[in-house]
Write a structure and sequence with these properties.
The chain has 26 helices and 21 strands. The protein has 5 domains: about 200 residues, P-loop containing nucleotide triphosphate hydrolases (Rossmann fold, 3-Layer(aba) Sandwich); about 130 residues, P-loop containing nucleotide triphosphate hydrolases (Rossmann fold, 3-Layer(aba) Sandwich); about 100 residues, Arc Repressor Mutant, subunit A; about 80 residues; about 60 residues, Arc Repressor Mutant, subunit A (Orthogonal Bundle), CATH 1.10.10. Helices cover about 45% and strands about 15% of the residues. With about 650 residues, the protein is an alpha/beta fold. The strands form 5 sheets. The chain has a 7-stranded parallel β-sheet, sandwiched between helices. A 6-stranded parallel β-sheet has the order 8-13-12-9-11-10, sandwiched between helices. Strands 14-19-15 form a 3-stranded antiparallel β-sheet.
């Protein structure tokens, strides 16, 4: 068994590592305790808020251990950012994700096993491949870090079945500690994470308070959302994010804001990697004040000076809302999170809930449509990766794009395939003919000879395995237009001289199983039904947060995530309204007792309650009634009367 204590030489060693590579004199609250728990060999679950410094909690102890830290992350963009950031610090890191060719993966694993590397970032679906298992002993892991750990729980808001593969690592690495990290998980999800990861008896949980003392939450129902949005952005100066519900809406709102003199741009997953990177960089450097985006934006971005996050539509869960709102005010200075909503949106949440969980018959047909679209025959396909554009698929098979999206998510959660994000992949080429046959071909097609010679001179090993190539470099080398180069490569591919895969910047699907025969289609509808119930409860919690006008919004969030010690923030809209009305905690208690005393004997409507306790201010009575409703102490029945729960 690996001796962790031998590497934990002094009390200040972790602080020295922190200062040397991260430039910080001391840890943030709870970080050092988590680092020490990992170094002592414990399995650790750490719940730290967005921007709370989760990566330091596994990166620092890994630097103090002998071996490599395997980091499991679901997001390719996040992996690339973290690897790049580590390399800038002089720390060697690698990554393996879906869409990489076999030989690329093999070379990366060889580097991890025999090179001087400290971190290997891996997407979860890569864990179960035979190639990964083959190299695992040589890699010599010292720690397994699991980012976005809530993804392992099917009762969470972002369940990814590929995360269930992580537990299999324990069979190969029984003595290696695991640290699971997430920004948001209910108690049910926390327990499920520990169970699914087979945490040992030496396990510890750390949960920072969900309070953000500098973040002022507001939920507003304005007469005109556009007018209110412009007003808010003009009043609250500084960097801001506006979350919208659709790609089209991001463009519309960005245009509207620009017309009002607000420097804004839009961002969504449908843009190319170059466009997304450019817009993101302009916003980070404050060339753009406001980025108007879908929830595709923000993950892994460390911008501490965001003063305002606006949700232009109600998110579907408090998990999403807390994570996105939490991107404001990471520098500790006052910031605002404002939710703008219309009453109809609450109804839309429940209607979307029904669409999100399709019938078994629909799923069976959708699966067949997908396999036909990808041109995969029954009994084959496992491990294959395909570019996939939802709009094209939905149009070809006459599907409602939203219903199809949710259906594919359900099929992915069943572990049938993995739906990857949009990533840039350079063109790949491998020669598929013999060298003698190639000479004969060149003699017969002299116009293609310059391209062939350029490929052979520029790319080593191109006869043995696929290599990344760049058409622009070849064009520059032989002084031909890039379109002519691409056309020439396509002709060589057609003649089966090369296997040419042009560059791609599209989302992908990786099949995790062979295509099922029609009569053998299997789907766990019971688990889907339970996820549907859990989703309904999350919607209800989000709706309650939105309409509540009495309870502190930080307290509502904290209690949802099992933070019972959280105190009223004093700066959210509800807290400020209570202060404005000057209703004290003692008054709330006195009026509550009177209301409950009345309802102990009989049910009453609002008018009746006001008449019975007429000695109290009517506005105060209304606020206390709303408070008791929110706390589920009383409820309004079908007759329009209040009764005790």
């Amino acid at each position: 068994m690996f001796n962790f204590i031998s590497y934990y030489n002094t009390l200040n060693s972790s602080t020295s590592i922190l200062k040397k590579y991260w430039g910080h004199e001391q840890f943030r609250p709870m970080q050092e305790s988590i680092v020490n728990a990992v170094l002592e060999g414990n399995d650790v679950l750490a719940l730290l808020p967005t921007g709370g410094g989760k990566s330091v909690c596994f990166q620092v102890p890994a630097m103090m251990m002998e071996g490599i830290c395997i980091v499991i992350s679901p997001l390719i963009a996040l992996m690339k950012d973290q690897v790049e950031n580590l390399q800038k610090k002089g720390i060697h890191a690698l990554s393996i994700y879906s869409g990489m060719h076999y030989m690329e993966v093999k070379r990366t694993l060889q580097n991890a096993a025999y090179g001087n590397y400290k971190f290997l970032y891996v997407s979860p679906e890569r864990l179960e491949t035979s190639l990964f298992e083959e190299y695992l002993p040589a890699i010599n892991p010292c720690l397994i870090a699991i980012d976005e750990a809530h993804c392992i729980s099917q009762w969470g808001y972002d369940f990814r079945p590929s995360y269930l593969n992580i537990a299999a690592l324990r069979k190969h690495l029984p003595d290696i500690p695991i640290i699971a990290l997430t920004a948001s998980a209910t108690l049910t999800v926390q327990n499920d994470i520990c169970e699914k990861l087979l945490f040992n008896k030496k396990q510890m949980r750390f949960q920072q308070s969900f309070a953000r003392p500098n973040l002022s939450y507001h939920a507003l129902q304005p007469v005109a959302k556009q007018t209110k949005l412009i007003d808010v952005l003009q009043k609250i100066k500084g960097s801001s994010i506006v979350y919208c519900k659709s790609r089209k809406q991001t463009q519309q709102i960005a245009t509207l804001l620009s017309q009002q003199g607000i420097v804004a741009d839009f961002y969504h997953a449908g843009l190319s990697s170059a466009q997304r990177d450019s817009k993101q960089e302009d916003w980070i450097k404050n060339k753009i004040q406001t980025i108007v985006c879908t929830n595709a934006f923000g993950m892994g971005i460390d911008k501490p000076d965001v003063r305002l996050v606006v949700h232009y539509a109600i998110p579907e869960s408090l998990e999403h809302y807390y994570q996105e709102a939490g991107r404001a005010g990471r520098d500790g200075n006052r910031a605002h999170a404002i939710l703008l909503f219309e009453k109809q949106e609450l109804n839309d949440l429940y209607q979307m809930h029904e669409m999100r969980f399709p019938t078994l018959d629909f799923l069976k047909k959708l699966y067949a449509d997908l396999m036909n679209h990808l041109q995969v025959a029954a009994g084959i396909g496992e491990g294959q990766t395909f570019d996939f554009e939802m709009s094209v698929f939905a149009e070809n098979f006459k599907l409602n794009i939203l219903q199809a999206t949710y259906g594919l998510q359900a099929l992915a959660q069943e572990g049938l395939f993995y739906m990857g994000e949009s990533i840039y992949k350079p063109s790949k080429i491998v020669f598929t003919t013999t060298k003698d046959a190639l000479i004969d071909f060149e003699n017969m097609h002299p116009t293609l000879e310059p391209i062939i010679k350029a490929l052979l001179r520029s790319y080593e090993g191109i006869f043995d395995y696929p290599v990344n190539i760049y058409e622009s470099l070849i064009a520059k080398l032989i002084h031909l237009p890039i379109d002519q180069i691409k056309n020439g490569l396509s002709i060589l591919h057609k003649y089966q001289i090369i296997d040419y895969i042009p560059q791609s910047d599209k989302p992908q699907i990786t099949l995790l199983q062979n295509r099922m025969y029609r009569d053998d289609f299997r789907f766990d509808i019971t688990a889907l039904s339970k996820r549907k119930q859990q989703h309904l409860e999350r919607i209800q919690a989000m709706a309650d947060f939105t309409v509540n006008q009495t309870l502190c919004r930080s307290v509502i969030i904290g209690r949802y995530f099992n933070d019972e010690k959280i105190q009223a923030c004093g700066i959210c809209d509800n807290c400020m309204q209570l202060q404005k009305n000057k209703i004290t905690a003692l008054q709330v208690e006195e009026i509550s007792n009177k209301i409950l005393s009345v309802l102990e004997c009989d049910q009453q409507d609002l008018k009746g309650l006001s008449q019975v306790i007429a000695t109290e201010n009517k506005e105060n009575i209304l606020q206390v009634i709303q408070y008791l409703e929110a706390e589920e102490i009383i409820k309004l029945n079908e007759d329009g009367k209040y009764q005790k729960v």
